[in-house]
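User: Could you go from structure to sequence for me? I need the amino acid at each position, not a summary. Structure tokens:
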């Protein structure tokens, strides 16, 4: 349900590429090798981070970011700070999911197909050349994701469920950079099409297994969950060796979720709380900045009239992320909560 993250820092690795490239220009063979590996790594991190932020059965589009320390009686840098708020404000992500249950499902086995369209975008104003330049450069990195998955849920009992799923993703990343100073314009021809103003594509597969315990009625159930997801993929038709990324990562979420139905009328309304620990590895380790983090969310959603296509419910969520590079609080939207 709830994941709050500000995203990556594309300008940081672009600046590193610029410095590396200029320093190694007299040695073209070694320059290509080192710069290519650095860009391949950053592209891979971008692909898996886009999936982590946008996956799920509901939208997580934060329209208000804040430092929880400013409203709670605490002072913990792992919970948030002004820098984390600024990072969140540079990122926007949007995801529209929907799911269909297949007719072959029965009392013990449920099979469903899901599709999702997602976008993650980061805008930043930075100095790509000299910090003394009169104007900052504009950098926009956008990931557009199309996903589909097949989910099989086996009911071990009335309370215990086991999920097995595999998802396929197509990801198109586009970097748009405007060089706005004489200093950055001087180096722009060296990097345009390679580390700036370029596009890249990749496919990824992400198998997932989960163990769930459901207690209580469906409308106000208590759920314990353990969900392990692995992601692996490859660049599609890279035009340069630097764009031949091979993303690989995993994340493991363990936690508890409780729902409270607060209105049972013609338009049911539900409040939900969720707490989880998320462990990450491989290409997610650098963007997240740690091996694990915690998240706490409180949400409210309401059923939507059947006349609205592809939308079962919609609402709001308040999320807190603790212990990662993406710490802080976010108020966002919920859509199609399962």
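Assistant: Here is the amino acid at each position, in order:
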């Amino acid at each position: 349900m709830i994941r709050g993250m500000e995203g990556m820092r594309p300008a940081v690795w672009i600046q590193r590429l610029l410095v590396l490239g200029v320093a190694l220009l007299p040695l073209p063979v070694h320059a290509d090798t080192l710069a290519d590996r650095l860009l391949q790594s950053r592209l891979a991190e971008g692909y898996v981070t886009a999936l982590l932020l946008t996956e799920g059965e509901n939208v997580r589009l934060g329209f208000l970011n804040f430092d929880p320390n400013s409203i709670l009686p605490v002072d913990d840098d792992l919970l948030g700070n002004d820098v984390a708020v600024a990072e969140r404000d540079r990122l926007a992500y949007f995801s529209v999911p929907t799911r269909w249950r297949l007719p072959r499902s029965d009392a013990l086995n449920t099979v469903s197909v899901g599709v999702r369209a997602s976008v993650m975008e980061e805008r930043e104003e930075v100095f790509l050349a000299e910090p003394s330049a009169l104007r900052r450069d504009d950098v926009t990195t956008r990931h557009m994701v199309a996903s589909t998955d097949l989910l099989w849920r086996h009911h071990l009992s009335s309370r215990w469920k086991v999920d097995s799923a595999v998802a396929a993703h197509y990801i198109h990343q586009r970097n748009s950079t405007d060089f706005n100073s004489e200093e950055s314009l001087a180096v722009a021809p060296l990097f345009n099409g390679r580390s700036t103003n370029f596009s890249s594509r990749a496919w990824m597969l992400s198998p997932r297994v989960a163990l769930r315990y459901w207690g209580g009625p469906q409308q106000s159930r208590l759920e314990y969950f353990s969900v392990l997801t692995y992601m692996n993929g490859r660049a599609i038709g890279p035009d340069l060796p630097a764009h031949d990324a091979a993303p690989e990562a995993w994340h493991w979420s363990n936690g508890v979720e409780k729902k409270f139905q607060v209105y049972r009328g013609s338009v049911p309304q539900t409040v939900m709380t969720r707490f989880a620990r998320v462990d990450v590895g491989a290409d997610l380790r650098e963007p997240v900045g740690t091996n694990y983090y915690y998240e706490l969310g409180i949400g409210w959603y309401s059923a939507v009239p059947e006349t609205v296509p592809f939308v079962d419910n919609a609402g709001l969520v308040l999320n807190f992320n603790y212990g990662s590079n993406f710490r802080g609080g976010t108020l966002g939207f919920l859509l199609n909560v399962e």
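One structural detail worth keeping in mind: Confidence is low (pLDDT under 50) at residues 1-13, 19-31.
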